[in-house]
Specification:
Strand content: under 5%
Helix content: 55-70%
Order of helices and strands: HHHH
Length: 119
């Protein structure tokens, strides 16, 4: 059975190649290459970090909503209950759960982002 290269390794290889050729490109294409390289890096992080982040998100939403379910359904319900006012900042565990879920997503989407007050 062939196990390599894995998807995240392929994404990283493409990202590295784009970064390698970028200095030789005209300004417009260099910018577009940078965007493409950043997209490939995000894909790689989604593949490696996404499953754990989603599992943690499901666990947190299950705790808050009081029942299990698929991520998309729990997320839709959580958002609807927040919009309706049924869940508020006073709901035990809600803010902490939202912070964890937001940090996990930021780690995938923008790993260099450091919110104010963080180290």
């Amino acid at each position: 059975m062939i196990t390599h290269p894995r998807t995240e390794e392929l994404a990283e290889s493409v990202r590295l190649w784009i970064d390698e050729i970028r200095p030789t490109l005209d300004p417009r294409n260099a910018f577009l290459a940078r965007v493409a390289a950043n997209a490939m890096a995000t894909i790689g992080r989604e593949l490696t970090q996404g499953p754990a982040a989603e599992a943690q998100s499901v666990a947190l939403m299950t705790e808050i909503l009081g029942h299990p379910g698929p991520h998309a359904e729990l997320n839709t319900e959580l958002c609807a209950r927040i919009r309706s006012g049924e869940l508020t900042v006073e709901t035990p565990g809600l803010l902490a759960a939202l912070q964890v879920m937001a940090r996990d997503q930021i780690a995938i989407d923008q790993p260099n982002y450091k919110p104010e007050g963080s180290l």
